[in-house]
Structure formats: C-alpha cells, structure tokens
Amino acid sequence: MNIEKKVEENNLTVKLDGRLDITTAPQLEAEVKGDLADVQHLVFEIEGLQYISSAGLRTLLSIHKIMNKQQGDMVIRGASDDVMKIFDVTGFSHILTLE
Fold first, then answer.
1. What is the pTM of this model?
2. Domain containing 79 — which CATH number?
3. 20 to 30 A Cα–Cα from 22, which one of 1, 41, 52, 60?
C-alpha cells in the first residue's frame, strides 16, 4: 500500500492506494497516529484503495476515536463501489463520515 500525507496548518490529508489489510494496517496506524496531535480535520482520500479488511476497518475506527477525543473530524472520500460495499455491510458507513 502507498501512503501519501499532506499537512497544512491543522489539516491532514492522507491518500491511500492499494490494499488496506492485516499486513498494511499497522503501517497506516503508525504513520497517521504520530501526526494527529494538532490535527482538527483529517481526510482520507481512498480512490486508489482496492480492498479493505477488518484490520483496516479497525485502524480507521481507532483513528476516528482519536479525532473524536480531540474534538476534530475525519472524512473518508472517494471509496470505490467494492470498498463502499464493505463499509455498508459492516455498518461502518453509519459510523464514519463517507463522501
């Protein structure tokens, strides 16, 4: 999986390409959690994400909880139909903000 981050003031944009699964979820968690201290608006751009597993969902939920604790917001943009189906089937589409 490829992870690109862009920080502007208190905004963080994370672009994901590839597969977010048991092998790549720890990498995403480590790369993003270290940058969240002053972030108030977090955007995941996932147009290039081909697959997300339960480990990837747990990582996104964990990051979402951190953002809630620091009264920030998190948005996930550009999910493909296949990835959106996973969000819908698991109920994550009701928990996370998807655009």
1. 0.94
2. 3.30.750.24
3. 41
Q: How many domains does the chain have?
A: 1
Continuous H helices in 54-95: 54-69, 81-90
| Cβ–Cβ under 8 Å, residues 76 and 49 | no
Which parts of the chain fold into alpha helices (H)? 25-33, 54-69, 81-90
Instruction: Give me the domain span that covers residue 31.
Output: 2-98
Residue predicted with more confidence, 38 or 16: 16
Q: What is the mean pLDDT of residues 84-94?
A: 96
Q: Return mean pLDDT, the chain.
A: 96
Residues counted in the chain: 99
